[in-house]
Amino acid sequence: MNITLLQADLYWHDPVANQAMLEERIFNLAEPTDLIVLPEMFTTGFTMDARAVAEPMNLTTFRWMKQMAAQTGAVITGSYVVKEAGQFFNRLVWMQPDGQFDTYDKRHLFRMAGEDAIYTAGKQRIIKEWKGWRICPLICYDLRFPVWSRNNIPQNPEQAISESGQSVSFDYDLLLYVANWPAARRNAWNILLQARAIENLSYVVGVNRVGTDKNENLYTGESAVIDFKGDVLFRQADIETIHQQTLSLDELQAFREKFPANRDADRFTLLR
Questions:
Q1: Residues 55, 66, 136, 140: which is the catalytic one?
Q2: How many CA atoms lie within 13 A of 135 on its CB side?
Q3: Which tens digit of pLDDT belongs to each residue from 193-232?
Q4: What architecture is domain 2-264?
Q5: CA 56 – CA 266 distance, rounded (Å)
Q6: Has 40 been annotated as catalytic?
Q7: Residues 28/58, Cβ–Cβ less than 8 Å
Q8: Is 140 a catalytic residue?
Q9: Which residue among the candidates 55, 106, 128, 136 is catalytic per the annotation?
Q10: Of the listed 40, 55, 115, 222, which one is catalytic?
Q11: Residues 51-90, buried b or exposed e (16+ Cβ, 10 A)?
Q12: Residue ranges per domain, the chain?
């Protein structure tokens, strides 16, 4: 799978400018891609002024993502602020080229910025199948919580069946984090991305923004691709960048067979 990471300096509260900037970069990609990953709140920056920027589903940003996916033939994903049934959500949209989509609402809301007082937390993860891969997209602060990110191993792996009817022994092969993770905690970002890869026997990709937002928060990016052993295949700090990386499902599966630590994993059920 070829995955594209878009690390950008976002315009504050300006969806039109952000969409135009990202669209230009998407159409200038060096080679075809299967999956395009944008940062958290890619239309506005990380904002608590949800009333000023929230969109209903199936409006401007949703339609823009649908257009981008159709024109590139790739899945495009990232989060933006959505208003639904009188509530606000930091919502990731997973948009496929055929117009089919799914959504994930950020589970862990960043209380230190008051996100938990403004947005409604999600209740369920999603696992999406694409190009033979199973992919779990999450959002920023979710990275700190290994139980929510856990690559659950079924009690009877031979009985676990994917959406496509295939037998599977892992929830996912690729764990994605879209983020606005500030420079003040960059060390945690780098360490936790590697930890999530090692403990889950999975590729991990984190896409962060760069620049300084309206609240004077500095972001250094450090978007990264980590392999299933925790090795850093790519990391870029401080500058806007577009990075394309090819991931190998065969190499991942071979490592899982050679080093089946999942067989010794503790079994548990998430209650809420």
A1: 140
A2: 25
A3: 999 999 999 999 999 999 999 999 999 999 999 999 999 9
A4: 4-Layer Sandwich (3.60)
A5: 41
A6: yes
A7: no
A8: yes
A9: 106
A10: 40
A11: eebbbeeeeebbebbbebbeebebbbbbbbbbbeeeebbb
A12: 2-264
